[in-house]
Amino acid sequence: MDVTNWDIDKYKSEHESEELWKLRKKFLNKHRDKYPETKLLSLAQVFVNIEFLGCRYPNKTMQLVAELSKGMADEYREKRKGKLKRTFAESSCPTIGNVKDVSETPVKVLITDQNISTNSDYQYSCSKHSELIKQPSYEYSEFSKFILYENCNSFGKLQTCPIIILLQSAEKNGFKDSLRFCYSGDSRNSKHEKYCELRFDGKVLSSGTGKSKREAKMNAAIEGLNRLRKTCFTIQEKNVFLSQNLTSIKDGEINTSYPPIPQDNIGSKMMQKMG
């Protein structure tokens, strides 16, 4: 069977704009005979992520995608020149072909706080006071469209519990009822060892064992979270609303005196009759 004979159009997302799909399809058609289907899909996604979202990846990945997409986005860049607005960004982020240093203005899209540079035309500087979006590797899977959310807990600290991260992410993705922890009723669950599966939309994402159901559930969550981090974006919430200069506000004086109750008040008369 010809490995290049696969339907590209079936990978168009219903939420994908025509402009984005046009670029991604162009990339897929050009290189469909060079890479396996899953790897090419991942590279194409990286390409449009860079162009449309200003995402950044490891040096080797950026160089490879720049080489494979050379000249593809020229028309798109000219059309959007001076008007490009990045998703998740308060200031412009670099594309493959037009990269300049980014100032210290808070930017919400970045990988790390360290500078990334290559021998080609790419030079990036990242803000130190930004929200963090962890980019997945270009491994593609059926769970790749799932987005992980790492939020702050009630104490303002970043949530680290894998179970809570998974459940909160599922709810924000609209998959609240699709993510379940299941305990098998077969021989894998014994008196001394418990077995738990993490299922996403009925498919087994990961599994874990432990001396108790709680331990097995936690191990399944850890394995599942690690697997999703390889193929899914992670959006990390930062507590940016803390004030450096606290202001003390003094409330007005509270009047504790009350007007006297009239003698003809019904309640007062009833109390007098009751003694």
From TrEMBL:
InterPro entries: dsRBD_dom, XTBD. GO terms for biological process: regulation of gene expression. Keywords: RNA-binding. The keyword Protein transport does not apply. The keyword ATP-binding does not apply. Pfam families: dsrm, XTBD. Residues 161-230 form the DRBM domain. GO terms for molecular function: RNA binding. Residues 8-92 form the XRN2-binding (XTBD) domain. PANTHER family: PARTNER OF XRN-2 PROTEIN 1 (PTHR48430:SF1). This is XRN2-binding (XTBD) domain-containing protein. It comes from Homalodisca liturata.
